[in-house]
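hey all, quick one before standup. I had two proteins in the batch that finished overnight and I want to keep them in one place so we stop losing track of which output belongs to which input. First protein below, input sequence then structure tokens straight from the run.
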Amino acid sequence: MRRKKLLLSIILLASCFFIAITLIVFIPLKLAIVFQPFHSYAKLAYIPLKGESEFQIKYTHSIHLTDVVESYKITTSQQIQQYELMYEDFSIGMPSNAEVGETFEQQNGKYYIKNMKRVFPYFYLRIGQVRANHRVIFQSNEYPLSRAIKPGTSVKVEVRKITFFQQWKGVNILESL
């Protein structure tokens, strides 16, 4: 009888331990900017957040071959707000003026659209294969996305919590230099 109670206690303790480990590994806890590839076999890439709320996407425009910088901040509801756009040429694909409520400025040969309030739950990005050289700027450091994500890959960019397992299987962009 005593042996059965001991065995039952060990099984119960082991079950609780297994459930606790499973919850820790598979419950989303870590807030991150996530670059989720459309292909299920490709690893997600992420930037872990610890209170930071701004990042930028920088790329070389395919036609006029100058840099474009899109500036974003993370809202309190974990959405993405584009607040600024900087570019150097009015060529094809670039805006010629600001929308209502936004401001258009020219400084040092560059054009800025500021005061943007464009909010998205997510947006899509295709990592350039030839000229674009997409980079993410985070905490004043520039990280080439092609080091973490295969060029030509389409990704969904969003802010969300990820699991320990996703962190372990994915690529931390801040560690990909």
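OK second protein, same deal, sequence then tokens:
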Amino acid sequence: MKKLIRLLTAGALLLALVWPRAAVRIGLSESSCYLPAERFVLQWRHSVEHQLWREYYRSDGQSLHLERTEMQTFGAGTPAGGQTVSAEKGFVGFKSSVRLPELNWVVSRNMQGEIRTLQSAWPLYAQVPDYSTIHITPAYLAQMVVWLGACDD
């Protein structure tokens, strides 16, 4: 009986490691890595207003879904419509429902772009040359591949 339990436990662990799941691939010039979560936030400072903007995304493995946007002020590029939602003090939130095949995000020290997850904030602007393009794409991979290729922030 103990042998059967160990065998079933080992099988379940192996299955958990190879079972595919939604992930997010981050492409940085010649390399790439995977976020440890399927939800992430892009945060940056607006080039004119110099106020923070946040976009909340989710990957389903096939597409990226922009679910909400939060900003400190209104200015160029502000959503013209949409349902307002609660947001952190000092921010205005808008519900979104935008589906994208990928994102190509240009970051610089001026805009202070970073990727956030529940676990961490990754200040890309401090780690790549100014005006680098970050390619963000949905992925559907085995958990082990995500862990082995996890982004080190």
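Flagging for whoever picks this up: The chain has one domain: 20-148. The chain has a mean pLDDT of 85.
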